Amino acid sequence: MRMSLGSPKKKTTAAQRYKKLFDLWMDESAPQGERDSAKRKADAWLRQHQKSWRDASSILAQAAADEAAAAPPPPPSDPRDGTAHPFDSSEFSPVGVVRGIVSKYVRMSSDHALTIFALWMGGRGDRPAARPAVP
Description:
2 domains
């Protein structure tokens, strides 16, 4: 018993097969022999389906509609998309972290004073430490 590892072959409609021939016939980068063969096959397809070249635009539109219908459905949306990210909160900003640590050890008269102190403490790491004067 032989098993195939590839995906199953996608079934194409008649309009999609015609579009494939039409695209090859119109492809200027394809070898001339392949283009001529595609035109002959497209003519045979039209005769077989009792169509003419005037019907080409409607056949191509049908092929596009068939492609869209055969496309897989979009993946379901992630249920987490509607919820806020937990680290978007200000308590996880650098100032919020310093403020949280300071608030465990220091009591201030107001939240504003605590925030100002946390900003001052957080900004102190930007400057190098003062050097003692050399005599």
